[in-house]
Amino acid sequence: MTRRLLSTLFVLLLAGLLTAPASACTVCYGAAKNAMIDGGQNAILFMLLLTYLLLGGGAFMMVVVRRRTALSTRGK
Q1: Is the distance from CB of 50 to CB of 39 less than 8 angstroms?
Q2: How confident is the model at residue 44 (pLDDT cuts 50, 70, 90)?
Q3: Which of 26, 32, 57, 76 is most deeply buried (CB count within 10 A of its CB)?
Q4: pTM surpassing 0.85?
Q5: Burial class (CB in 10 A: 0-12, 13-18, 19+), 37
Q6: In b/e form, how buried is each residue of 7-31, taking b as 16+ CB within 10 angstroms?
Q7: Count of structural domains within the chain
Q8: Is 16 in contact with 5 (CB distance < 8 Å)?
Q9: Which domain range does residue 67 map to?
Q10: Quick one: which of 10, 33, 36, 11 has its CA closest to 23?
């Protein structure tokens, strides 16, 4: 019985220690300027930029292929 009680207490203590980093972010505490927030904003900006670059590159590739196809059919 005591072994089970000790293991239960250990699990509860471990769960309590591991949930502390999962608490609210610094914005919830009132600090709007933080390295974590700046990093999150930079990540969002990077993902948006990457998405637009890939979409733009695909559209550009379609235009290039269409022009090459039009030029090659004119010559025949």
Answers
A1: no
A2: very high
A3: 26
A4: no
A5: middle
A6: eeeeeeeeeeeeeeeeeeeeeeeee
A7: 1
A8: no
A9: 2-74
A10: 36
